[in-house]
Amino acid sequence: MRRQTVAAITRETHLAGAFELSVLIPKVEGGKIVTLTSWEEKIYVGTDDGQILCYDVQEHENTGRYLFELVKKVNLNVGKRPVEQLLVIRDLGKLIARCDGVITVFNLFTLEISGSIPHKKGVLRVCLERQSQQYRVCLETRSRLSIYEYNGTFQLIKNISIPEPTLYLEWKTGIFCIAYKNEYVLLDSETEEVIPTFQIDSKPCAAVVADDFLLARDDLGIFVTDKGLPTRGNVVWSSTPDALEVRTPYVLALSQTHSWFEIHSILNQQLVQRLPFPERKEIKTMNAYEGSKFLLAATSSVIYMVNTRTVESQVISLLEQSKGEDAAQLVEYQLRQEKSEVAAKRYKTIFTTAGETMLKRASMEGAFLAFELADLDPRHVMNYFPAFFPGGTKDIQKILLDAVEGQKVEADKLYIRAKINLMGYLQQIKPSQRHSTTPKEINQVLVKLYLDPSVCPDNTLADQQIEHILDQNPDNYNATELEQLLRESGHYHATAVLLRNTKDLRGALDLWKRLGNGGIPGSKDTNDGVQPTVDLLASMDVSTSSLNKKLLWEYAAWVLQRDLNTGLKIFMSKSRPTPLDPKEVLDYLVTYGDLATEPFLEFSIFDMDDDSTERHNRLGLMYINTIKGIMSKGGYENLLNETREKFVRLIRESKHIKESSILLQIQTLPLLEEKLILLTRMKQLMKALALIVEELHDFERAEQFCHDHQSDDEGLTLSLLKVYMDLPKESQIIPPRAAALLKSHSKQLNPVQVLPLLPAEMPLVQVKDYLLSAIRHNHHLYRTSQITRGLCKSETMNTRFSKMKTTNKALLITRDVLCPVCQKPIGDKVFARYPNNTVVHFKCFKSQNVCPVTNTNFRKIK
């Protein structure tokens, strides 16, 4: 038979397509194709006229073109009966065929009959046990499953009854997955336990996926375990699949409705590709025997091959779509079975090769994503950019020029994109101990990229990025080289940051001052140098360096002259290691007037807890002078209110202000609230109360004031009553406010003191409520004092009795009595006696509560 050559006729793929479709055998001899399977380079076809065809297929010199030859043909002599199933048992070298309900076993190589499976006619379905160490076959008839095991010959080992014929049957490690008309079930072939999964109302379709089953329910694919429990996510198809095949890590669904294969990732259940079938022909069958070289699909006369693209080509497709995570997941899954060291090397090689390939294709983003996933030594990537990385041996400009066939303008645009991608790559990468590249090398390249206008046209943004690098440890960059680069490129602010971080403070301050005084010729900076100068001086520790103090006074002057409010932040910083001497700062700021000294005093007092009475009073006098000035001119209400609020805060919160001095200064000013606060602080409560009543005319506040300060002066409420008694009486004998005060403050007003204040002609009934409440309260106080007196008297008597009981005990000291501590006679020396009658010399007496002999603690004895 002649050998024929066929090339692929279609490669309709998604951009990230894992598969390609090509014609393998354009015309099968004999009848129409019903079923097919494959083993190594052999393809076995079952036709509708009872024949089995064996084709030998070889790839022609790695060209993607295949040679095929019909090498064997067997007629089952069943007339027009179709061959319905072909199954390969690879390790046994056997091919099982089902035709007209009869099972025939062939030699896989010669297609000669090789043994048999003892069974009568009526076999509806055959399946092999997958993922098993044994060689077992299951034959389904109308009412049972018959299990045969191969031990030289096929022997029946078990029959399992089933309620109805199956529409789908799969067998994996002892578990059958069965689809009946209305449901999927799992059946344990050993225990015969049936595990229902879920109902179905459409054509069933399923596949074995690693340790799970994938079951189709309408347009939804559900992964379940051997126990019927859902696992992973669900697969969503565009329509109910007609057949499912697995090529790890993908599952292919055949859709007759759309004439395409829908390919999903098993890893994340996402749609990877739709592979259209050419000319929308109806696909009759497909087969992906475990371990077979070919994934096949066929119409009635044509056999197609679904080629799995190489991992490298799939990775490149994914990276071109910026799907780095999917690419990494794909490679990890493919290499999971390899040894760790080999897998790591292979992983790195795949992404490195993909990156280099994509560079040659001028696919910048995908190339750098591949380099990042490969976890390359950054030097490998920087090596493509000799203009930025001295000693680079590869020239990306030449690579890109070749990629666009010498079009320099286009190559220059691509070079800019490459530099931008290099910048992003280096910003993300973190060198590890596995890499020889140092942070210094990376930072040097990054700074050069930031200084390139085509990469970073915004000078302000460039300065921010450079400053971020310079704020790192100076060991992470070459300061001398960077200073030269920054000066030559006109980035003087960044140069000053570099000098600051390398401890050349005068150099940094001088550059900022020059920028603030009109700029430097050729400078690209928009920064006027004021804020960075303030930040540096505000954090400078002047306590340990006379040079630092000199720099502080020297450079603070030009900042204050340029912007007073900003310059004051130099002296109002909490981040300085050692606070400045407030007196020294005030002497320095006095030349700038109250606009400078007042904010500093506020900072010193309120934020730094300055305890100097002189500075507290000084700030108070500043506020008073400001208030006087505003009042004398008139207007400026907002400024007046703001100043008064600050003054009130000072006299309320300050613990060091001299109230009498401040009160004297505002004596003639209409600052009633301020006077009230000062009088209260000075404990001149009667004067404060008089101010509330006579000048503020706020009686409710007066009563509250009395309530709040009753413990300081019990006569306040009585004094307020005297004031109220002088108010107009209207039609009553006593003023209404006096009557209300008597009622509300009956406990604070002693009747003995109140009654002389009341008019002699006033009936007692008008103050009945007050008298009843006051008398009850005073009687309660009297009774309480009597009880307290009785308790104290009782305690006194108990104490006296205890004393008498203790001192009335006789104690005889003879010459033979020894001190148990020093073991010397007590004699006529001063001694001490414990409650347990232990006697010791007074000089040996250590504790009045603990006996030195028995260690008894008398304090704990009740």
UniProtKB/TrEMBL annotation:
Record's subcellular location: Cytoplasm
Q: Which residues form the signal peptide?
A: none
Name the domain of life.
Eukaryota
> What keywords are annotated for this sequence in UniProt?
Cytoplasm, Protein transport, Receptor, Transport
What the entry lists under PROSITE patterns is as follows: CNH (PS50219)
- One GO term describing the cellular component: cytoplasm
GO biological processes: autophagy; endosomal vesicle fusion; protein transport
The residues covered by the CNH domain are: 30-290
Instruction: Name where it mostly resides.
Output: cytoplasm
**Family annotation (InterPro entries):** CNH_dom, Vam6/VPS39/TRAP1, VPS39/TGFA1_Znf, WD40_repeat_dom_sf
Name of protein: Transforming growth factor-beta receptor-associated protein 1-like
From which organism does this entry originate?
Planoprotostelium fungivorum
